[in-house]
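Recap from last week: sequence in, structure out.
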Amino acid sequence: ELSTLLPENGGYTLWVREAFGDFWGFQEGFVSWCGGVIDNALYPVLMLEYFEAGTGLKLPMWLSYISRVVIATCLTAVNLSGLEVVGVASLVVLVLVLIPFVLLALAGVDEMEPSAWGQWASNASYARLLHNVLWNFNGFDATSTMTGEVVTPHKTIPRALLMSTCLVILTYLIPVLVVTALDPDWQSYDDGHYTEVATHSVGAVLTAVFSASATLSCAGMYMAELASDSYQLSGMAEMGLVPRVFRQRSSGGDTPFVAISASYFFIVLLLMLPFSQLLEIDNWLYSASLILELGALVRLRYKIPVPGRPPGVFNIPISTKGLVGMYSVSYTHLRAHETPEHLVCRLLLEKKKKKHR
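Predicted structure tokens:
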């Protein structure tokens, strides 16, 4: 709704700024950019974990860090080539990621136990489950940061979001159904377990394919996230919320190379942290930014009433009261998983808010 109402680069930063002013627009942009950078740091860590799981190697800490930096550097170089290159690469990755699971299903169809799909965990860690579910399904708002690059966004973006939702569900549903049917002891799963199932069911050849698939998946997510973060930072520069140097574009790929370079610098620093810590911080920042986004959605319903909006603007078929309910769910999630470290972050934000008042 808001991408079609305000079709410019900057996305959610622009929404919050339009709804609540420059101060909160900057807070939204800064928190979202920090969360995006942390999210980007997750993928080289995961890629190396998949490599170690597939090969059985365990790299020393210093070599592990250097390997993560090399991975991040290579993928950042792709983003500097242009947005179209990132889009094509992401589509190719999507197809390649699903192929190993289709092969595994065909090869292991005789060994499948579909009854495992109905099992229920007695000792599940629901807090960790919610963290992973939120992370796996967040990021749909990331498209908004590049709205200014889209032709006819009022038609393209709603269709793209609908198609993306279906594809995301498939990319999780197909692997989970196949692997749990082949190995019903899903409570023993750990990072890289899909490759172990492939080895047991088919052999080392498919294991190598799985490792490559998982690595490609992380590569695709890294490129997409970095594109979103860099265009968001560039959009903030166009709004005057950050120095205008971040809006500079390269002459070749027309990419915001300064914004990309800034994100890359902090990603390299964060690569020293383990996956679990990065994930929790990422989710907290995303939930905090989502509260402001939903608040902007409600506020703009009153500031720019639906009947008076330009023709072609997509409006969510939910009442304003229903949107307030979505706001409550997001805030509940944020507070339910608050750790002492996150509490300090929230108190600092509230302290800034009081000073602003």
